[in-house]
Amino acid sequence: MGYIEELREVTGQRPLILVGSAVAVFNEKGELLLQKRHDGQWGVPGGLMELGESAEDTARREVAEETGLEIGDLDLVTVLSGNEYFVHLPNGDQYYAVTVVYQTEDIKGGRLRPDGVESIDARFFPLDGLPKKLTRIITSLIKKDWL
After folding, report:
1. pTM of the model
2. Per DSSP, what are the bridge partners of residue 74?
């Protein structure tokens, strides 16, 4: 059982504050890596922090797990938090996401492939040719001109 599941046994579905990381990965052409999720939205790789991890460790782990790529150096873009990032899941669980957003062009290795669990497709897009259906994180970064 994971940390979040253990918390939920104690707190039930009440709102939690959960910390995670997301990474805008750019290739040598300046294209942004996006992954398509099961709900049809495209977003950057990311996920929740595990106990004992740094935000940077979380970012690297999530990129590797979700896309197959290994990344190196990370540059901090911003931290997203507040009411705008409240999540109410279909199962009734609720949380306020605090997401540390990084960007990198430092792709160390691996082979790009969606994991089939959290992402069903993964590819690079030019910034002027992004898909229409984007996650809240991507739309926030675009709106605030951070991409």
Report:
1. 0.91
2. none
